[in-house]
Structures
1.
Amino acid sequence: MRATLIHAARDIRVEDVPDPVLRQGTDVLVRVTAACVCGSDLWPYRGIVGTDEPRRIGHEFVGVVEDVGDDVRTLRKGDFVIAPFVISDNTCVHCRNGVQTSCENGAGWGGEDDAGFFVDAGQGEAVRVPMADGTLVAAPQPGDDAMLASLLTLSDVMGTGHHAAIAAGVGPGSTVVVVGDGAVGLCGVLAARRLGAERVVAMSRHADRQALAREFGATDVVAERGDEGVAKVEELLGGVGADAVLECVGTKESMDQAIAAARPGGRVGYVGVPAGGAELPIRTLFGRNVSVGGGVAPVRAYFDDLLPDVLSGAIDPGRVFDLVLPLDAAPEAYAAMDERRSIKTMLRP
Amino acid sequence: MRATLIHAARDIRVEDVPDPVLRQGTDVLVRVTAACVCGSDLWPYRGIVGTDEPRRIGHEFVGVVEDVGDDVRTLRKGDFVIAPFVISDNTCVHCRNGVQTSCENGAGWGGEDDAGFFVDAGQGEAVRVPMADGTLVAAPQPGDDAMLASLLTLSDVMGTGHHAAIAAGVGPGSTVVVVGDGAVGLCGVLAARRLGAERVVAMSRHADRQALAREFGATDVVAERGDEGVAKVEELLGGVGADAVLECVGTKESMDQAIAAARPGGRVGYVGVPAGGAELPIRTLFGRNVSVGGGVAPVRAYFDDLLPDVLSGAIDPGRVFDLVLPLDAAPEAYAAMDERRSIKTMLRP
């Protein structure tokens, strides 16, 4: 089959690789309908994370079950399934606590499963899925491309934006600031409004992203950054910071901005993978009683909440996809996202 | 009147100072019934925080209203009052948000009020209290020394332990670890049980403090520290960390221990004043979804919850006081706490 590999910084190739086969009784094989490129895939693409040898890449996909191991109980051939970006058994104590990203038997796409077998990454034609009952979530076959796109966001960005909002304690009446206008930040806007936020300030300098933020429910947009951006936020929010700030970037600058934008007693929910040197300034947090929570989003935990709203059309996070390319154009997908020509790019095998 | 001053590290003196008088219409004068020494007072005592010139010290006291400014509405001469460790108007937006420590007009004992007048510190015979309606909380005159002691803890340590528990999200059924066996840590044990925690592991190496922790409701005691202590906690809690960890010390070591003792998705509530170099390790937090919240405790916000339970005898936090000395023995009070001969020392003018 065809699959995407990263060979080195800015060297993405789509190559022939072995067809996956079932390895364990709890596996299924999934024929990928759609995959996509993640903001975190850009880290190795940009060379910020090194690539020692060629490896498969991609951790967001949806598809159709093609073959089923003997021990799989909940999935059948022909089921449409959504793959969260982490593999989990969904039964261990951490999964029961809603932290499937810390599953005792967990694994990553493109890595090895609990028995040491290679696991395909998401940007390919097919994937062997370990612990399929725990990992995958079945959904009705999408009726159109818009629904396909929205279901695909549950693999990562919609659940991740939701995690930021939950970690920041967003609830009815909250005032919210979202730092970051990538797909996760935009989904964070949508998640905050869905949870009842009254004011949602999107911090964005790009006209197309500002427009989508507003369509997702942002009540205000602030183009300024740093101290100037924080001053603007306070001006909008009656002279105080926000109840909740969603940090959806992961740099020191964005975290500092998020902390400064929170009111005393406010909460920062962060989901941006932390870049180098971004330790949290505890004295600043202490004096203002600003808490910081979040982390790698356990999106598997949020399907019960989010999937019904996607299926009903109450939310349409799939609008973050503004570019759809065939799988073989994966190099162009990475370039488009790297150059910020695309908010989020879908790959169709 | 007599009051306590710190002149330099390990140089505490009780001296004659001017009697306080009313300065603003919203002031009251309080004759101090009891004051005490705080763990944070030991920082300048130990020279960790420098002392440039002699200054008044102490921020926890209870007493009786002796004189009342013309604009005071809620207090009368003869009222017994408890002073939170921070002065606040209790009406500004931050106070209404329950973060009186960030009051827009706030001030500290031994500092200056909003009009620039000197404010007495707590370890003395009398105190001019600015913004008295906002700052002070009236309570029935205590009937005995035990009730006096418990009411005095609402000035700081009981409210601070409660803040740690609230920030850590303690609720019915929680598993809790308390790092720190000072008065705040011990009150944290009491607060966690009061909030419904099922398991409370107190980390303590001192027999007397272990005993009080158990009397306050600790279900387990761990004497080990660092990695060994964390391993012991996990063993006690079925192989996983705690839902909630109360960090009541403020050093890098204690914070690292607290973070390591939290389960994935767990919360650290911290109230230990952060000592030097204790930035938070964001990558560790991110990967395990451990959140960190808390800060300087807005104890004024917690009187509605805690005072009734103290008055009814449901909780008896005053048991942290194991030494009572006359005001003139303040130097010995500091020495006793510094040498850990006393958990918490009361001063009676």
Note: The domain at 2-156+299-348 of chain A is CATH 3.90.180.10 (Quinone Oxidoreductase; Chain A, domain 1).
2.
Amino acid sequence: MTKPVFDTIAIIGVGLIGSSVARAAKEKGGATNVVLWDQNSATLGRAAELGLGKPAASMTAAVADADAVFHCIPVGAIGAAAAACAGAMKPGAILTDVGSVKGNVARDLRAAAPQGVHVIPGHPIAGTENSGPDAGFASLFEGRWCILTPEAGGDADYLAAVDRLAEFWQRLGSRVERMDATRHDLVLAITSHLPHLIAYNIVATAHDMESVTEGEVVKFSAAGFRDFTRIAASDPTMWRDVFLNNREAVIEALGRFEDDLTALRKAIRNGDGDILFDLFTHARGIRRSIIEAGQDTAAPNFGRDTKKT
Amino acid sequence: MTKPVFDTIAIIGVGLIGSSVARAAKEKGGATNVVLWDQNSATLGRAAELGLGKPAASMTAAVADADAVFHCIPVGAIGAAAAACAGAMKPGAILTDVGSVKGNVARDLRAAAPQGVHVIPGHPIAGTENSGPDAGFASLFEGRWCILTPEAGGDADYLAAVDRLAEFWQRLGSRVERMDATRHDLVLAITSHLPHLIAYNIVATAHDMESVTEGEVVKFSAAGFRDFTRIAASDPTMWRDVFLNNREAVIEALGRFEDDLTALRKAIRNGDGDILFDLFTHARGIRRSIIEAGQDTAAPNFGRDTKKT
């Protein structure tokens, strides 16, 4: 087997993503040793029980020997966690994360990092609607993009550290993209944050329609609604923090969405079928592009229903 | 094998739903004979080639011997098709459809039906994002609801016809619900029409964000966006007709959605994390109800990604 990319990594937060990084790192040669920490002792205990790595006695103990420290906690909590333990990191080690927002997180990590620690914010575009150490799995990152947002103009040591972290994610099966943090936050506002916001909102709307009982909404959800409830079942703390930490880009994307919706409502009200038909035809083409890019299954209904006969 | 429910049925329109009814009817004892018609001769030829039934020489020929005629075409086209052939139907036969809107369709079917033909509008809550006779399959209706909207106060013959049509759908694996057409249109506006409208809209918004290339939207679509593109890939003609024929209920549901979105945007702008957290936590509960009701898979990511290890 190829030599693991890192000797020792520390995972701070062993939820869905942290536990998947731990599993994948061991299984695919990402790291020889995995040290775990979680502020919730029951979660940490469960992760140890699952054999995901060695539980540390404290957060500072977890990071002390690590060549790379992965903060796998909600983005609103990363700053404080990094501030509390980055001082205990080895010189030359990598300080990274897996958060869905990069601008604010990059700022917080840099503020926390001592001289000689390489701050390289990261974001694997992977996940499910489930949470916790039992929900993770080693193949979660296979074929998925991982975006790194290194700072511009680093020295040779820093660039080598970025290459090494990229190699780690590739070892886990990811394709790696380097991007400016601001651009990341804008792109993800559209491809991820706005869709989640809309999903949360429509679930709330459906629930609040007093004239229709919740029973009926649930009962007939296979008509389309159920698709939205999946992403609306994602971790509430994580998503609260995403919206609070990418406020501007999300509100900008939301404004455009609302403008488009106003135009669409007008077309329906005016009975303008051609506008609707053209828009719907165009949307079909985008779906096709996503399947061709290997970013979703071509199986009807995501392949979830009974099989074709 | 149990005796089929009908001797002969006619399927007008052999797309995803029509071809699935044809397949399921033959395979599961819905009908002994299936007669097919489609205004597109290539589609009709393909359906015959697939062995889905006997292609008719004309629409009136298709319905002449049928005990039940299923209009499986976009809701905006049902009125004209029924008007063109209902006069050729046998007395005592059932005139039904599979459209996603019931109020306007019920009105059109009743206007077209001669004395002695039983009009029973129907809507199987089943489908995929694909279209055409090759996309259909016999198990499409298994475990799915089928809503019938019979008229109130029919005579004994009519009630017997409704029971028979219900039996047909049950034979195909559906659970049958009877409902007033107006209520159907209101419930489906929330569980189906609004979600599709929102999905179409967000796909358009993502495409139009000039500052982000389409390449990036597609590339990073696994972060949430791809979920929306699936239902936005549904048949454009079908959906144009749904919005034009259920205008009032859709605009009512959309208004509520927009009000909720305004409140959500305000919470983000004000940094009110508690409002967000409570809303997101609530949404998770609705997802759970849908899974418990057997209306979606519990597998993470709809089970579409690589398997758990």
Note: Chain B has a mean pLDDT of 94.
3.
Amino acid sequence: MVTKKFYFQGEHGAFSEEAGLKFFGKKAFGIPVKDFEDVVISVLKERNAYGILPIENSTIGSIHSNYDLLLKFNVFIVGEVNLIVKQHLIASKKSKISGIKKIISHPAALQQCQNFIKKLKNVKIEISYDTAGSVKLIKENGLNDTAAISSEISAKIYGMKILKKNIQDTNTNITRFILISNKSVKPKKNTKTSIVFTLRNFPGALFRALSVFALRDIDLTKIESRPIPDKPFEYYFYLDFRGSIHDIKSINALNNLQEISTFLKILGSYEEDLNQK
Amino acid sequence: MVTKKFYFQGEHGAFSEEAGLKFFGKKAFGIPVKDFEDVVISVLKERNAYGILPIENSTIGSIHSNYDLLLKFNVFIVGEVNLIVKQHLIASKKSKISGIKKIISHPAALQQCQNFIKKLKNVKIEISYDTAGSVKLIKENGLNDTAAISSEISAKIYGMKILKKNIQDTNTNITRFILISNKSVKPKKNTKTSIVFTLRNFPGALFRALSVFALRDIDLTKIESRPIPDKPFEYYFYLDFRGSIHDIKSINALNNLQEISTFLKILGSYEEDLNQK
């Protein structure tokens, strides 16, 4: 069997890499790239390559910029992973918590640990592009007065110490990641499909759109209206439903939706991750 | 006429203060407090006091933590303001762009200017709790090698220079702010109502909920499902519709929704801001 490889944003030890390994198993390997667009472009260039993107977080909400990438490029969602995100304060083995003068991490991680950070005095907060990358930076520069906020695995990878465990504001901080590929898949069980559409704006427009699912007893797992920049009173609707574009019921619903929508893109059908919702 | 006062998070010159002044007019005055919860608590303690909170941004999406405050405390939404957010690179009058070694700002502002920041070399990025507060800090400490990302008005207030205008990634970066009070209002025109509700989870549940609006030709302006932490497969639905809790049509719709929902909170009826949507 060919070893699976997947692209992810960040450095080794990133949550995206952890999510990819959870999906494919420990034998897969992750290739770090600089940003989310690089993940998509790398996937488009290569056969049998996968990419992993965070798409929503229970604290922060939907990551619109990654939805934008799914609209812009022709990639398919082929899987999903729900990951409980636990953040830790990590520093070199010589460091003590009382000696920490600066904390660095990705803005999302800093936002998830606001309560912890607020209580600190005389500690500077600096942002970086990556949680695990912050641990790597502290290691490479031999800094003893600086700590990173990052994953347990990143502490192990770079031989660092966890000064304080679980500093995130809530213990139910879950990020939903999606796997993307340039080839769609045909999921066998727990099927789920993600779509984006737009409608003409009139009272009851969304109700009519949802009827195509309700009349066929299709269960929705996500709905969100997002105002379209530059287009007053127009919205993208993000919708996930249980079913696959290979089922006749879902095909009929989507054909029906096509009739009444002004734009419809099917992002992919894949197996739902039923763990840790 | 009594001068209106409102609480906002941050320092003078913050976007929240700008939004408050846009709503009440130049003669109102804003009182800065430390965080969003302080805004709500200040409003609860005082008669005739208002507070202002950002609730969604066109780039970042809904601000769940502020929705959580609306669920936790008994305050009412009494108005809304859409503000086009323009970010500028601001430093002391002596500074030159080539001499800037560090940039400080709020994580949301840094996120909105990612493209600009990514192109910089050898510049450190540090987070603070406030955009305008970063300008104030640079001023107070007489720093010449540090710049802030903040509003035009904050540069004026603290007598600072704009090194580069409009560094935000998109020119349609709009934040929607809400005005809160401990007394509800009865809006006269362009009425809009915000609610949060939960449903039993079965196929067609949301469709049934939306029927209470569609059957009465009530227009929706926002719908979003948010997974409830700790409760698998349960969602909060955020919904805004055109109409007021003083109209018989809206009252009927909400009574109808009450019958089929497991939880319903009316956040308030207020006048819609039709500008800059």
Note: The mean pLDDT of chain B is 92.
4.
Amino acid sequence: MDDVNGGNSVVTACFIIIGDEILSGRTQDKNLSYLATWLNEIGIQLREARVVADDPDGIATAVNECRAKYDYVFTSGGIGPTHDDITSDSIAKAFGVPIELNEEAHALLRSHYAEGDLNESRLRMARIPVGALLVENPVSKAPGYQIENVFVLAGIPVIMQTMLESLRHRLVGGSPVRSRTIGAELAEGKLAKSLGALQEQYPRVSMGSYPFYRSSRFGVSVVLRSMDEDALEAACQDLIGIMRDLGADPWIGEQDPR
Amino acid sequence: MDDVNGGNSVVTACFIIIGDEILSGRTQDKNLSYLATWLNEIGIQLREARVVADDPDGIATAVNECRAKYDYVFTSGGIGPTHDDITSDSIAKAFGVPIELNEEAHALLRSHYAEGDLNESRLRMARIPVGALLVENPVSKAPGYQIENVFVLAGIPVIMQTMLESLRHRLVGGSPVRSRTIGAELAEGKLAKSLGALQEQYPRVSMGSYPFYRSSRFGVSVVLRSMDEDALEAACQDLIGIMRDLGADPWIGEQDPR
């Protein structure tokens, strides 16, 4: 965890989405934006995401590259009972540890399934890399787990979301990044020069410019983000002034409330 | 381009999504599933996707890693007129070439903007790495471009989609992957063992199992994908037989049509 930005601590994360179904276009990922927002609220910045195929070497490589580079890594997908659920084997490979039937996970599954229904395939969900700490799954019991700084979670959004709540207390966040959005009916290209100058004036506020076309109106949303609330507030006021000088009537937030 | 799968040619691609707005959770990416489906139709398999921040070194590293690994790389985002549009500088850095005002791109912008509206910021959109070939943008003129096997496209979905049509003729696809989906009201864990055996029986058909919960019904969709249509058809028929033996009444397609 770096200590930059004038004493504010920056904690970073990476998200690895595992699954052929995302790369084939069959399934639209819904977990990335949820995780990004959720992490941000506890002061952790998502810095990269990768979508990787159901391939053990590819998964292991991505996990090893990312766990060395970021404070936390989260994975989603591939921990179910079928032959294409290869995440846990790939994680064991990445860490160079064996994978075994985990007694605690086994007990959880036994409590969930009727006797006779806990077949060989479902038992696969209790195979966990040695040394991992389980993450509770209140929805369907089969657990996720943590191994060092890597959290291995389910891909089904509702299950991933409850797993995040289960593991929240294990994360140490930094200073949260505050965000404000200022919008205006103004072409991005007209605002660009002044916005670039404003960015130079406030190096600790990151400014993103996003053009839009909504209800037959062209405009721009500028998102300002910073760990320094005073600088953020001052930059917002300056930006509103710049937009007014360009003849626009800016609003605060993503949508014009009027 | 490998020549595996019994003489079928496999052409691969990677998608690099550039933008802090995706990693902050502000914007939900819509381009990945579109590109995946579009590429698949012309026989190109999307093998990996990455979401990277607005950071020149991070972008350059991702581009260089991926262009060495895949036949084609597509990027989206960061080619607009504002200070946070740093994709083109990062691409020039990745390739070790200068970036200059491109005369053809300049002419396109001149034809689009009224005199006096083509300001310094908008001219940024005509700064293109030397050696690149432009990709037409019928929507708003500011072009994308191709440099070696990397295609640099806009992030706004409608513009990215028209750019793909503009560059389609430059891509050489392999054998398209055919796909069939078989669904049933059947717990994934009950099907898992037979499905694993079926996968072993048909190594050239990739089988993905996706549980669902819809309209108060639990079930599973199995997606079978192959470049070999005969094997695909045979595997589908076998799977339908397996599901029936397990007491289910399977259907073809994502949704039960009944």
Note: The mean pLDDT of chain B is 93.
